[in-house]
Amino acid sequence: MRKITNRAFSLLLIAVLVICGMGMYLMNYIDKGEDWAKYFSRVNSGSSGVLMDRNGQVLAAFGKGVENFSQDAETRVANYHVTGDYWGRTGSGILSRYWSGMQDFSLFTGMTKSENSVLPLSIDTRLNKVIYEALLAQDPEAKGMMMLCNYKTGEMLGLVSVPSLDPMAENTSPPDGAYINRCLSASFTPGSIFKLITAAAAYEQIEDIDERTFYCDQEYDIAGVTITCTGTHYEQTFEQALSNSCNCAFAQIAVMLGQDTMVDYVTRYGFLDKQELSGISTVAGSYPTEFVGDPELAWSGIGQSTDLVCPYTMLRFLCAVANGGELVEPSLILSEAAPKSTPYMEPATADRLKQMMNFNVVDHYNGEENFPGLRLCAKTGTAELGDGNSHAWFVGFLADDKHPYAFVTLIERGGYGLSTAGPIANEVLQWAVENIEPKK
Fold this sequence. Notes:
Number of strands: 17
Strand content: 15-25%
Radius of gyration: 26 Å
Shape: globular
């Protein structure tokens, strides 16, 4: 009798263990079944796909257990942060998202789908090569980025982050920061390019801003704290203050606006939010939203303090300014559909910023010599980092219906925006104007 009881108990224990094991398996299957299936489908996938640029050049192709990239090494390196890789090492390439999307999984069959497709991108690989070479021309070990977008159609024509790497190489010792997409996945102290946001708020909120003048003798005292400027500008108008990139003037303007107003404009323009580029999430920026007092508010209004800006978010802002206040959301996917725009800022504000940014080029950047033939509207930024170094920014757009290009250029710890980032932007824009055919 005791043997029968022991056997029954053993059978019951085995049954409980089997049920628990099946339960754990089902839970793991629901949670990780898709990952398992996709892992094994890498070598036996029913799907195939081709990723190509706007001109039909193949950037990557996969199918039947084979995962390839362009046969040209320069193309692979210059476009790495656009394509990414099949393993998601950079975290922001479109290839891993595209490949994953073609491997749809069913919990009931445990199978991925079979599909063949071609995904054309808006990127011009020739332009990306030009950008890549221009970013590294002054310093082969530079860290930085540049994006160039058609603000009328939203087509992202160029997107490059350096350092980069070849996804087909072993990359046992990749350059430091090579997997970071500085266009989308990083934020930086903006310095004086942030004065564009402060200027937009001032134009809308300070009724007589264009009639006011601001005095600068290289220092301005706010509640016992000295705001320093890079020059002595004396009496200047609002427009001249932006052209001079005057810290004293824009510190005063930020305090006049008040912190609540500044936070409102930074928020409404999306600088505190994560954005999305063709399904790829970007990082959020930073701005002091809690009370900091007038001196710190003054520094924040000129792009210092705790300000951080994602380059892509700045590009969206510039696209809207260039397009009369309407934003055509940038995209990496080449689409035949007509672009849709949404209101981003008041048209009058966009027009005023456009005038002021063009005045910057004419009045302060020696436009005819440094940017010959370009109808350029721009703003420099020299973002101080507190250790004697500064990020070099140059951002803007062409007021040119035939070549409607907005751009953001950044060299980390590169020094002055105009002398470091300005020549890079000029080289790339000159090439784009001569070589990129508009979409028909």
